[in-house]
Amino acid sequence: MNIGEIARRAGVSRSTVSYSLSGKRPVAPTTRKRIQDVIDELGYRPNATARALKEGRTRTIGLVIPPAGNRLNHMQLDFVASVVDAAARADLDVLLSPSGGDHDKSFERLISERRVDGVILMEIRVEDARVGRLQQARLPFVGIGHTAGDEEMCWIDVDYAGLIRHTVRHLADLGHRKVALVNRSPELVAAGYGPALRAAEGFAAATAERGVTGIDVPCGDDARSGQDLLAALLDAHPDLTALTTINEAALPGIQRALDDAGLVVPQDFSVTGVAATLWAEDFRPPLTAADVPALDMGDKAVALLVERIASPSTPPRHILLAPPVSLRSSTGAAPAHRAAPAEKAAATRS
Amino acid sequence: MNIGEIARRAGVSRSTVSYSLSGKRPVAPTTRKRIQDVIDELGYRPNATARALKEGRTRTIGLVIPPAGNRLNHMQLDFVASVVDAAARADLDVLLSPSGGDHDKSFERLISERRVDGVILMEIRVEDARVGRLQQARLPFVGIGHTAGDEEMCWIDVDYAGLIRHTVRHLADLGHRKVALVNRSPELVAAGYGPALRAAEGFAAATAERGVTGIDVPCGDDARSGQDLLAALLDAHPDLTALTTINEAALPGIQRALDDAGLVVPQDFSVTGVAATLWAEDFRPPLTAADVPALDMGDKAVALLVERIASPSTPPRHILLAPPVSLRSSTGAAPAHRAAPAEKAAATRS
DNA sequence: TCGGTTACGCGAATCGGTTCGACCGCGAAC
DNA sequence: GTTCGCGGTCGAACCGATTCGCGTAACCGA
């Protein structure tokens, strides 16, 4: 069932059917009605492939996600969902491509076979070969995260440096003198993952500025790692009274380690950071944190990409988001003295 | 840069380039080398759209996920990841379509514009209009979950009835006399979501069989709902000593409600159910549960779909998975007497 | 009455591949 | 010495849409 079949049944030429559908040239009302009746009867919709070939665009965008091994965190998941949603509203389909390494089969297919009109690139690293590949292919794209040196591309990012700086100041104002940054996984930090690097930057700047002692440690992106890490940290630093983090997935583990040590938040220990709203609200007590507007970012990313596809030659735009810190109840004045973890733990175990 | 350009530069016809690439007809080694050199130099890859038009297949499959509003749980997320992965291995791309209602724009586009060669349909309901739509369009598809009446389709499902029955027997064997089933959200239950219905079936059968009292309650798919529900449940049923669940997302909330009530697992209360391995291991103590092999299911779904695309007329196959129950440490002998929640909670609050 | 719009519709070209039929030259077989 | 088969190549048709150029008829004002 194709446009020729419709034309035949309506007794007109194929071009007339096409014009009737697109409205790009006038078609007599009676003819149009006849055509529409046939279309309605057969439930015809023009073949997307043929249309794409002729028009030179696929009405599809690629969404490059971290590879399946690395589990997506809630922020990323919300982002994916909102991209798919926003794309649907713009009558675009979304092609998924898991890609981590530089030479990924599925990524390469997307680009060189021209399956998509544009790409949204998640989890950009500071040195990212995919950016060069996209530029070389002249394919419009929007990065989630930015690379320091490159102003030639469109991107949207969260101002991790600024937000972490903000949280550290907040803790310093509450009297904390020794503060930890629970960063993303060692692998991501080593790979030069932007948010991890910039969080560290902001952390270093703010601790120096306020004269507090800062401990910057990477942590696997899961509850277990968070628990082990914090237990070790509490053990090694009896005077540690607060932490800030960008590692959402470690939060449940952090909570457990604090419980195990018999520390009450925020009386004995303060916790803050940057996280998706859901995670922040799931913490107990609710986390004082900068809420990453992941849903909003998806909308913005699609809008930016659509704009870029329409006019690829305009100078690239950048959006740096700095959501406000929601004061919930996981931070408080520094305790005069934090009981040694061992003795507290013993007390609760009994 | 297209096949004509390659042909021109290599001094051959377009068909020769095509045959050289596909190997469907012999090409002289010298010619082949000349062509390959030009291709390597320009980095040519045949345009996917044009190829799809001629071949009549897009090498793309559609993955229909629950709409963005309903947050995906870990099981579903693992499943999506493994589908994308398995598809990539089979040189297929994955087009995402969020669809809940019956008349979804993006779903309809996928089907009627023939953007995909086949579809994987997640979260099937007992009455699901999308199934009929796919059959009518003669588009191969595999359902995740099955509809009772319809044996005409391919599906993969987890044997929720059997697994829940199994967990209830386990609890009964440990001496529990009153057991709750924490089911999925009221909306899903009302919509006739298969796993929810079948879990209830299995629960009813097993409680009857073992003569234990069963309480079957729906619960929102999030931590907060789990917490509220269980608190209410403990309050209303002082003799409730165990629960089983298929609602992963509620687990963290269940954990909190138990903590708040001062109940220790498994001494005071037993918890079990069906969950993704990650959630089961994240519970404290680790959850005795049937581990849903979501990653495996993705592989199997893609394999089944590929098979069905290749030969659409063979009778549909069904796969019912019944993963073994991993005995971890969240279930134990029923306590002689469970302290009233109020008095225990008061004790911990002090 | 005549030139000039405008409305309407058709045929053909085009997008970038794949594939069928045909052709040519050469060596083997009868 | 013709014929057959086969390796190697080319031209043309085709997939299903869009769109350009052109023809025709009706209608307008001068």
Automatic annotation (TrEMBL), chains A, B:
InterPro entries, alphabetized = HTH_LacI (IPR000843), LacI/GalR-like_sensor (IPR046335), Lambda_DNA-bd_dom_sf (IPR010982), Peripla_BP_I (IPR028082)
Residue intervals of the HTH lacI-type domain:
1-55
Report if keyword DNA-binding is assigned.
yes
Q: Which GO terms describe its molecular function?
A: DNA-binding transcription factor activity; transcription cis-regulatory region binding
One Pfam entry for this protein is LacI
Note the PROSITE patterns from the entry: HTH_LACI_2
Superkingdom, taxonomy of origin: Bacteria
Identify the species of origin: Actinacidiphila guanduensis
* Protein name in UniProt: Transcriptional regulator, LacI family
The alphabetized UniProt keywords are: DNA-binding, Transcription, Transcription regulation
